[in-house]
Every structure is written in structure tokens, then in C-alpha cells.
Write a structure and sequence with these properties.
Blueprint (H helix, E strand, L loop, with lengths): L22 H10 L5 E6 L2 E7 L2 E5 L8 H7 L5 E14 L6 E2 L9 H5 L11 E16 L10 E17 L2 H5 L12 H8 L3 H13 L4 E6 L2 E5 L12
Helix pairs in contact: 5-6
């Protein structure tokens, strides 16, 4: 596992194009940039954040749903490193006030909220995923018409404070390490959630993705819900990548 830490906000070097991207996206792109890289490169009808020999680097700070067509077009011929940040800690910056820490915390398991839209993404041999746990500052302004739940404020930007940790997934096998190691022979999403220390909703997303990847198989249904099992060693459905 790789870990990097920032002690201050990093500004993108002037040679890196931004295309009106947010501060978080720009800072991560600057972090991943290497000498000789090309930035904002048109390729097969898409724009690539970073291109270097043998690798495309895509920084995706929002939903994976919009990237399906890009991956369908490019993964057959190109190796891609997909970088996705998750805010482990968040600070709120509002006009006239010092930044304050939000009670909301993210975790590595939040990646399943994105993977449900492309559940077999990591099954492709040309795709590597970096999940970057970060501390961010949300810059907010007053918004009288903001819907309930936002507290009357609208987020205008996210700024990187620190990179706390990076978890790299090179395939299905790496992702499967997030399954609890002590699951019973037959288990439900409640067992997954309890073993991983996450909510039932997250456990359901995990089950959806792992079933699509054939890491687990559905074996029945009880009053407690659908039951699953891990493939036995040597089963044709067992994934090795």
C-alpha cells in the first residue's frame, strides 16, 4: 500500500491544462504528473487527463457512470490508470468563518458506490484503479434556494488538504480483499456489512459488484435475504485476476 502526505495545498504547474476543472482534480493531476507527460490530449473522441508512453491517467472526482463509453472505446488498446479520490475527512469553508470539520467521514468502502454503475470494471486487464483517501476543504457560499440537507449552502469547489492514503487495485483479486475474511459458508449482505464494519446499504453494493465479478455466487434465498457463497478453489467461476 502506498501513502503520500501533503502539508499544504498544491497548485497545478502552469503547463498543465485545467479545462475549468476543480481544484481537487487539478491537484491530483499535478501529483500524478511526471516529466514528459502530455496533458488534456484528444484521443478517439475523448480528452485524456495525462498521457505518457504506454499509459493513460484519468482523474475522476465524480461518478464513474459517465465514463462507460470512454472505457469501452479505449481499454481495448490502452492501459489506463483511473484515479478516484474519497474524502475521508472534510472541512467546510464559508464566507467570514474559519473552516470547521464536518462530521461526515468517508472510507475505502465508498468506492462501491461508484463501482455499482460499472461493476465489472476491474475485470479488464488494462485497467488499474487508485483509490485516494484525502482530506478536503469544501468551499461553500450561501444559497437561499438550496434544498434541505445542504444547510442553505452550495459547494463551489473542493480543495485538497492532504493525501492520507492510496490503495491500488490491479484487478478483481485485489478488490476481493475487501470482503471480510471470516464469512460463513453461506452468507447474506448483512454478514458482509457486519464483517466489514459498514452499513447494510454498502454491504448490498459490495454483493452486487462481487456477484457481477463472479467472486461470490448466489445460492438461495431465506427470510434474511439472498444467500451467497464463495466459489470453491478450482471452480470455473473463481476469478484469479
Amino acid at each position: 500500500m502506498l501513502t503520500w502526505t501533503y502539508h499544504h495545498q498544491i497548485d497545478a504547474p502552469p503547463h498543465i491544462g485545467t479545462l475549468n476543472e476543480g481544484s481537487l482534480h487539478a491537484a491530483l493531476k499535478a501529483h500524478y504528473a511526471e516529466p514528459g507527460d502530455e496533458f488534456e490530449v484528444p484521443l478517439d473522441g475523448f480528452v485524456i487527463d495525462i498521457r505518457r508512453p504506454g499509459l493513460l491517467v484519468e482523474i475522476q472526482t465524480s461518478s464513474f457512470r459517465s465514463m462507460g463509453n470512454k472505457f469501452d472505446r479505449l481499454l481495448a488498446a490502452h492501459r489506463i490508470l483511473l484515479v478516484h479520490p474519497i474524502a475521508a475527512t472534510t472541512y467546510l469553508e464559508r464566507p467570514g468563518k474559519k473552516p470547521r470539520k464536518s462530521p461526515r467521514r468517508g472510507s475505502l468502502f465508498d468506492i462501491f458506490e461508484e463501482l455499482v454503475s460499472i461493476p465489472t470494471l476491474l475485470d479488464h486487464p488494462n485497467l488499474t484503479l487508485d483509490v485516494v483517501l484525502v482530506s478536503v476543504t469544501k468551499v461553500q457560499r450561501a444559497e437561499p434556494k438550496a434544498r434541505r440537507g445542504r444547510g442553505g449552502f452550495h459547494t463551489t469547489d473542493r480543495k485538497l488538504r492532504e493525501i492520507l492514503d492510496v490503495r491500488r487495485f490491479t484487478g478483481t483479486k485485489d478488490l476481493a480483499e475487501l470482503l471480510p475474511p471470516d464469512l460463513p459458508a453461506q452468507f447474506t449482505t448483512a454478514d458482509i456489512a457486519s464483517g466489514a464494519g459498514v452499513s447494510r446499504d454498502v454491504g448490498q453494493r459490495m454483493a452486487f459488484c462481487f456477484r457481477a465479478l463472479e467472486v461470490i455466487t448466489q445460492v438461495g434465498r431465506t427470510k434474511a435475504g439472498i444467500t451467497y457463497a464463495l466459489p470453491r478453489p478450482g471452480d470455473a467461476t473463481a476469478r484469479s485476476r
